[in-house]
Design brief:
Blueprint (H helix, E strand, L loop, with lengths): L2 E4 L6 E4 L7 E3 L6 E4 L5 E3 L65 H5 L12 E3 L13 E8 L2 E8 L10 H9 L14 H38 L2 H9 L2 H30 L9 E2 L6 H14 L6 E5 L4 E5 L11 E6 H6 L2 H16 L1 H22 L3 H12 L2 H51 L1 H30 L3 E2 L2 H9 L4 H13 L11 H11 L18 H17 L8 E2 L1 H11 L1
Length: about 600
Amino acid sequence: MPIPVVCHSCTAKFAVNDSLMGKKIRCVKCRSVLEVNSSHSVSPSQLPGKDGRSETGRTATRTKAAVTDDAPRKARVVRPETLDSPARPAAPEVATPRVVKARRVESPPAEAATRGSARPPVRARRVEIDSTRPAPANDSRTRRGRETKEKGQLVKAAIPANAFDPPPRDFEKFHRQVLTSFQADTIDHVPVEWSYRIGIVLVSIFMIALPIVYMAMIGGVGWAVWYHFTNHTGIMKSAGSSGSGRAVVFAGLIYLAPAAMGIVLILFMLKPLFSKPGNNSGRRSLQPGDEPLLFEFVDRICSIVGAPPPQRIDIDCNINASAGFNRGILSMFGNDLVLTIGMPLVAGLDMRQFSGVLAHEFGHFAQGTGMRVSYIIRSISYWFTRVVYERDAWDEKLEEWSKEMDLRIGWIFHLTRLAVWLSRRVLWLLMVTGHAVSGFLLRQMEYDADRHEARLAGSDIFASTARQLSVLGIAHHGALADLGQFYDEGRLGDNLPKLIVLNVEQIPEKLLKKIQEHETTAKTGLFDTHPADRDRIASAARENTDGIFAVSSPASHLFRRFDFHARAVTWDFYKEVFGKELRKSSIHPVDDLIERQKLQQ
């Protein structure tokens, strides 16, 4: 039955469901936090605010959560239902995502940067799931975990406990200790077999032939149009000799329709050659003077694996790290590399795991020829994928014409759409063939890079890192779902990497078990560019090495201002999603939002 409630602050009267007995609610009028007691009355419950004064809590039900007038209201983050469909913030209905080019780090909104937290920072945890090769025990001073028994196996959850704490006060001493912790100047060379070299040549020839086939298709369509124009003029002559105006019109359509279809088809096939893919970087560049330890750490790993150091280090909000050519194909003839580091990745790994990830990325560049060939192969594969699946205003206009025009003329556009569809089916066949042929070579390159990672960080650490990346991916889904709830209340968290890490401890054991099952049952497919985790972990285990670097401090301590950078890339992420609709007043500390969320549960 409903419980009548009287607010002692503003004397407002309202009723709540009896299921809220003993729980905290918010007054519908003055927004004071109240506690429902057995006498059908309430007493104000003051919560400490950021300025020492009281702060309002949550509404009685989630559907009545307040939404500020200045908050963006159209974009939504959808809670993921399965592991195979990661949630992504949907683009605003009236504003397209804004692309943020790489740049020097600038301050995020002052409100988010200076606003305090209503509670101490929450210690987060990393998840490690055991396998046939257990990971080393964690340092109890820097980690905390939970242990449960699951069918005789131990499931252990932990993450660097102080990932978002400031680095050691004596940073220079810590700087020296990290750089002197490498136990060798190089790792054992990863050999390249002759079969692999021959494979590079054969795959390269095949992949380069695919664009040639594509150009030949365009030439074939052009030749067919020319042949029709020059050899089928008799259609018009026959219609003209009949003396019937209707016959002339019909003959004109018959004569001109194939030509029009061919010309439109050629334009559609030429279009991908000149259109550029969207730039979704959302990255910002770091400077060596701002983060000296990080730059020296990266340079040291490059020296150890025998790869050229990057000319620039960028950061973004992805759970990933990648090394690539700075200017695309123009950088292939030199060593103009750029390293991109995802701040959520740094927050979720310790320094040893992170060093292995970097060794993997630069292990690709330790074999210069192979990496350059790989770049060409990946570029061609990506281009074919764009040609087959990408749709733009041209496709929409062609569909619109075919539906709106009278069928006596519209049939030409219907046939044109059919021709475009058939051409894309042929290209799809070429794309799939290219993926199948290049997949073997790309998977072999991943195995080689994995060996670099294992030889630097250790075989066991490679396995724990693979599981950690899977767990962080699940936590990323949960963080986006949290953002959806926060957004419904007119708020956005100021630190997405931190929110992702905090979601690790919320992952249910059922999902942890699925990750473990996936690790042991996943198989590498014919078209996969990366081997399954099971195969990669087994390959790294055969290296049977402890590595040459064993520092277990949080990877975030490689940064002087990790929390600042994490909030900066979060702002960039929001700018890409919400564009001009994003307002600084919508940004709130993650700790405050998590506290509010707990009150609502």
